[in-house]
Design a protein that fits this description.
- There is one protein chain.
- The chain is an alpha/beta fold and about 210 residues long.
- It has a single domain, classed as TIM Barrel, CATH 3.20.20.
- About 35% of the residues lie in helices and about 20% in strands.
- A seven-stranded parallel beta sheet has the order 1-2-3-4-5-6-7, covered by helices on one side.
- Helix 2 links the parallel strand 2 and strand 3.
- The chain starts with 6 loop residues before the first strand and ends with a strand.
Amino acid sequence: MVEGVTLVDTAEMYGNGASERIIGEILCEGAFQGRPVIATKFAPLPYRFSAKSLLSAVDKSLERLGIETIDLYQIHFPSPIFKINALMDVLAETVKAGKVRRVGVSDYGADQMRRAHYRLASHGVSLASNQVEYSLLRRAPETNGVLEASRDLGVTLIASNCRTMPRTISLSRAGRRSASRVISRVVSSRRPSRSSASKGGGSLRSTR
């Protein structure tokens, strides 16, 4: 379907699981040229009573995506309910169980990222990434300590531009071909530029 796609970034929240299901169907059909990195996110929502709910959530994401292991599993946003240590402890469990290869966070500040990093390290697991809003127009990570912390910790900063993109794409009535075209446009827009795919800690990867 799409040539050169190296990363597909989604979340359980997108379409209440519909995005993961559609990506799973496309993966099953072999529409990608090669196997892209699959990244998805856990939402620490108030109705989830404990961080342990992540364990059932990752199983459901795996089922929707139709894969055995998620390449990058991220905490979708900081939670005022769940403590960082508790979330990182459960993330480490998913890695040790072989359900997840690498773990990351999203929209974490510098201090939150450091706490997550050190908690995961206590389990022998690395914090792979922090996905934050970062673009030519929105450059807060350069001044709020996030970019500096990512370099210090060896954490990849994934730059998103979510506030300037359309918030909702309705796929409920779309046929398979129409859905594939929509996903094609979305994943194509996430393809990192050569300049953003540098190796090493603190490198930038552009996504939406």
